Amino acid sequence: GSSRRRNAIVDGSRAFAAAILTSFFQAEAPWFLIKPWHGTRLTLQTLDTLDTSKDFSFAQYPDPVLRIDAKEVKQYDEKLKFCVYKLQKVCQRVGAVGLAATQCGIDAQILVLRDAVYINPHIVYRSDEFQMKTWREQCLVLPQDIRVETLRDASIQVAAFDIYGTPFVATLEDEEARAFQHEFDHMHGILIIDHSYSLLSSSSFPSMLDLEAPLHSERRYRAWDRTSSFRSSQLR
Q1: Mean pLDDT estimate for the chain
Q2: Which residue among 61, 124, 128, 168 has its CA within the 20 to 30 Å range from the CA of 156?
């Protein structure tokens, strides 16, 4: 009898430990595992001033380059191709699905998403508002404990140029549409924290509250504005 009780206690202890470990690893990172966050301050470059001798750095909040509204690309030349190549390398290095050039401190409307490249993109069609999908998003430029519930269009149609200056139109749906909209936001200086109704706090970067408070309402308006995709000039 005592042997069975001991076995039951051991089995119960193991089950309890397994449950704790399972919930621990499935949960968002607890505060005591979150590393202190250190922002960057990259030098803003254009395609004309691009330093081709160095690898691109990756911006981290609250770097001012993350808040610029990128300028349109005017020339489709070797520097543009080099920039796209380097951006794709950064994606691989940091484990990103996509990237806007502004995230590397480059003031140019360039967006890479997996193998696709969009130059001067703008959204020419969105699915109906009632079809919008809810996502829980995280971003590599922000502290790891920041997660935001966003509403994204389920389907979009994007008009852009390729690296040779040839115009094209792409239809994106579901996750691909979400990822594009996330990077499109970056291209115009919008972060996922701007989509949050209320201000967000970060255990690893407590200053975020004070930094965001003055402009959060204005930035939230821009993030929620579904007509802002038409700010770029029309395709030539």
Answers
A1: 88
A2: 61
How far is it, in rounded angstroms, from Cα 6 to Cα 150? 50
| Cβ within 8 Å of residue 137, ≥6 positions away | 147, 148, 149, 150, 178, 182, 192
- For residue range 119-140, what is the model confidence (pLDDT) as tens digits? 999 999 999 999 999 999 999 9
Long-range contacts of 34-41 (CB under 8 A, 24+ apart): 34/143, 34/144, 34/145, 34/203, 34/204, 35/144, 35/204, 36/204, 36/205, 37/61, 37/143, 37/144, 37/202, 37/204, 37/205, 39/63, 39/205
Residues 6+ apart with CB under 8 A from 110: 70, 73, 80, 83, 84, 87, 100, 101, 117, 118, 119, 187
Catalytic residue, chosen from 137, 183, 212, 218, is 183
- Known catalytic residue at 149: no
